[in-house]
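Q: I'm building a small set of examples for a reading group on sequence design. Run inverse folding on the following structure and report the sequence directly after it, with nothing in between.
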């Protein structure tokens, strides 16, 4: 662990040895208990089981709806990637206030979200192209899919391809996509997110690239770029602000 204390909230499978990684997903909870590790192969199949087996042990199990489990001003940086858009719009101010509370003065808040502007521009481009016959209908359909599918999805990813009994059970026991936190509840762009951060009391919000950061030696965290130097989540917007 680095001397700089960095939290990676809602880490999922995207963990870093240099961070305190925190998540509350079902795989993380199963991995954290002996019984969970034994029953996981019975509950999970295919990609989900493979993901579970690769999941780092270096993840703190915690439900962020209960706040961030650190004292006031005790953290140097807080990072979260593709988490904010899953929060209900009216929950966001409380979440940002928690990040503000745990950061030390001068600490960095780094946020990665899907870029609403990029998605909307891509949609308009395929629309314009379709009107003059220069865009394949499938490309236009895909741009609509990117924009709205994750907002309106009902059945959780993967569940719809299960065998009938398992599919029924998963839907009954685990709920739909929204109740499992899979859906996008809001989307952010280079105007709305910096504004929201300022309202929450953060200073100097800036849109950066995946490799730029005020967190020292950010590329070594391997959270926004692969070891080969590729961007992990193309189409993302990267915003930092200071406490
Ligand atoms: C879309 S995934 C993003 C995962 C990862 N940060 C990435 O960029 O690939 C959202 C993550 O937020 C986590 N999450 C959602 N609500 C949470 C909560 N209340 N407490 C902790 N983690 C939560 C989910 O379990 C999931 O791993």
């Amino acid at each position: 662990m680095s001397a700089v204390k960095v939290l990676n909230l809602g880490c999922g499978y995207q963990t870093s040895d240099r961070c305190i990684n925190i998540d509350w997903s079902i795989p993380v909870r199963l991995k954290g208990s002996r019984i969970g590790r034994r029953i996981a192969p019975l509950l999970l199949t295919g990609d989900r089981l493979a993901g579970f087996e690769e999941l780092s042990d270096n993840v703190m199990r915690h439900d962020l709806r209960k706040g961030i489990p650190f004292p006031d001003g005790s953290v140097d940086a807080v990072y979260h990637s593709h988490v904010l858009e899953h929060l209900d719009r009216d929950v966001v101010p409380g979440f940002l206030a928690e990040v503000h509370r745990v950061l030390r003065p001068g600490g960095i808040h780094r946020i990665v979200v899907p870029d609403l502007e990029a998605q909307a521009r891509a949609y308009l481009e395929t629309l314009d192209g379709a009107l003059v016959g220069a865009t394949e209908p499938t490309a236009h359909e895909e741009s609509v899919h990117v924009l709205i599918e994750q907002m309106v999805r009902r059945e959780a990813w993967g569940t719809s391809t299960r065998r009938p009994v398992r599919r029924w059970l998963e839907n009954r026991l685990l709920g739909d996509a929204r109740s499992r936190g899979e859906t996008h509840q809001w989307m952010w762009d280079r105007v709305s997110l910096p504004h929201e951060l300022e309202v929450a009391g953060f200073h100097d919000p800036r849109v950066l690239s995946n490799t730029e950061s005020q967190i020292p030696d950010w590329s070594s965290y391997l959270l926004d770029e692969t070891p080969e130097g590729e961007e992990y989540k193309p189409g993302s917007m990267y915003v930092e602000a200071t406490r």
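The radius of gyration is 19 Å.
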